[in-house]
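In the current project phase, our protein records have gained a structure token line. A sample record follows, to show the layout:
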Amino acid sequence: MNDALGGDCAIVQLNSRTVAALAAVSMVAMLSALDQTVVSTALPHIMSSLEGTTLLGWVFTGYFVGATATVAFVGKLADVFGRRRVFLVSIGLFTAASLLCGLATSMPLLVLFRAFQGVGAGAIQTCSLIVMGDMFPPRQRGRWQVINSIGYASASAIGPSVGGFLSDNVSWRWIFLVNVPLCAATMAALVYGLRDRTSDRRPRIDWPGGAWSTLLVVGVLLVLTFGGRELAWTSPEIIGLSAVSAALLLLLVRAETSAPEPVIPMSLVRGNARALSLLGSFGNSLVWFCLILLVPLRMQLVLGASATEAGALLTP
């Protein structure tokens, strides 16, 4: 098969279309990973420019809330409407949100646009895996997915350095605006190189599970963001939010137990090996992103380091 569409053939030969599609998939996945961490070193510049501190942390976490809300549905939407169409819409949303982030005039607007950027990024990350699976048969798929994963991890790792350099030497707005031409190029490459594919199977989308999981993530983040800072842990607001989050967890478990095609299959948390694996992944991500967020802030606001120096410290 010569086109960038997977099938049952043993080997997919690389030609101009396949290479264009492969490069575009890898590039846009790397951009979505870069934007996870690129703001960490730019936050002091953003705070100074937009004059807001209360919502500063949400410039970082809003992205992940948006991504979490998206991942649950995108795979099934791609089955219904076609991989290429959903992928292009996802990139378009990410591009538009990046432009709006770069043009934001207030902290609430930036947080809102970052959340929409996260929605696009979550869809991109899911679609990139689906499209990569479509492009190559199993005997080739592993190699290209490993290469794609290395690029994704590398982009996330260098994000603080990129954000620090652009913030110090150009403007913090360019950590977002730089996505616009690059995403436009990837969309053109995908239109050229990627044939569409839909599934004959029409999956049922678990809307209740997706809604409860999204609200649960938002509730927990609100508790962790405001608890012990703006509000005491024993304040009625935090206790109320914690109670609501607990209720949402129960609703999520109930919905996923009875759903024909759950967003979060309960089988994933059954068994010690799976539960420990998920717990370990959660702990690793928690430590990593806490370091990415807090270390640059301390270096710049307390120790007087530049954004570039803070980013260099975090680069492996």
